[in-house]
């Protein structure tokens, strides 16, 4: 029994045991179906952890230094997502008050909203990728019963997602660097447009790294399962 998993508790009416496991990552697939969707009324009370970018348990202990570095980056990522989200919400609220109460809207608010929104959006992409909370399809688990086959398909999809991030990230970062090097200014605020474009550099870079880590994590887990079950 791995770290963070306690001994089984009382049995339910269906004969399955409750287990208390502390996990900072989600979603967790239901027992047996290995799906991304969890419904307390339709699924078992305990669900196994989904393979996200950052491993847990014994695998995390082997790369403790990497996990520690990523934990610091995750805190910064989460903090700035909250900051930019609050700034965006406050800005929109202020614009409503200025426009409809004082009849004096701030013209530059559209540029500032795009600035906060871009950083909020691209940092959010990296964060949900880190936690495995991006959109998934669940039809595969309804027609394929082999858990190893499901994991193979998901590994392929993760690799394809990684390649897509590399391609789109390349062109996005190339454009962002062009804007930064040319020193273009925004129309109203006259701020460097590189501040907006830099969000793509940070977002795509972090997302690509997390997709790569997730693919490695899934591959190692799948290899261990094939060794332990003979490929079934």
Features:
mainly alpha; 232 residues; disordered N terminus
Shape: elongated
Measured distance between first and last alpha carbons: 22 Å
Low-confidence stretches: 1-48
Give the DSSP E fraction (strand runs of 2 or more residues). Answer: under 5%
- How many DSSP-defined strands? 0
Nearest-integer average pLDDT: 77
Order of helices and strands: HHHHHH
What is the count of DSSP helices, taking H or I runs of 4+ residues? 6
What does the largest sheet look like? none
Structure classification: mainly alpha
Number of domains: 1
Radius of gyration: 22 Å
Residue share in helix? 55-70%
Could you walk me through the main structural features you see in this protein, from its secondary elements to its overall organization?
The chain is an all-alpha fold and 232 residues long. The protein has one domain. 61% of the residues lie in helices and 0% in strands. The chain has 6 helices and no strands. The protein has helices at residues 58-62, 64-100, 109-131, 140-143, 147-182, 194-229. Mean pLDDT is 77; it is low at 1-48.
Task: Summarize the topology.
Layout: H1 58-62, H2 64-100, H3 109-131, H4 140-143, H5 147-182, H6 194-229
Brief overview, please?
The chain contains 6 helices and no strands. It has helices at residues 58-62, 64-100, 109-131, 140-143, 147-182, 194-229.
């Amino acid at each position: 029994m791995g770290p963070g998993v306690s001994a089984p508790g009382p049995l339910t009416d269906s004969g399955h045991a409750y287990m208390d496991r502390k996990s900072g990552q989600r979603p967790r697939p239901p027992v047996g179906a290995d799906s991304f969707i969890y419904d307390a009324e339709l699924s078992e009370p305990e669900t196994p952890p989904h393979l996200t970018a950052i491993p847990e348990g014994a695998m995390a202990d082997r790369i403790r230094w990497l996990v520690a570095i990523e934990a610091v980056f995750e805190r910064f990522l989460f903090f700035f997502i909250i900051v930019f989200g609050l700034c965006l919400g406050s800005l929109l609220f202020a614009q409503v008050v200025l426009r409809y109460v004082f009849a004096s809207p701030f013209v530059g608010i559209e540029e500032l909203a795009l600035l906060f929104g871009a950083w909020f959006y691209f940092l959010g992409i990296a964060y949900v990728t880190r936690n495995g909370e991006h959109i998934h399809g669940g039809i595969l688990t309804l027609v394929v019963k082999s858990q190893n086959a499901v994991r193979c398909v998901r590994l392929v999809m993760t690799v394809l997602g990684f390649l897509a991030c590399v391609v789109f990230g390349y062109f996005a970062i190339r454009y962002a660097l062009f804007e930064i090097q040319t020193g273009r200014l925004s129309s109203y605020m006259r701020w460097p447009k590189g501040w907006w474009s830099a969000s793509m550099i940070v977002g795509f870079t972090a997302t690509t790294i997390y997709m790569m880590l997730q693919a490695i994590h899934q591959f190692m887990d799948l290899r261990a399962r094939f060794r332990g079950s003979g490929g079934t």
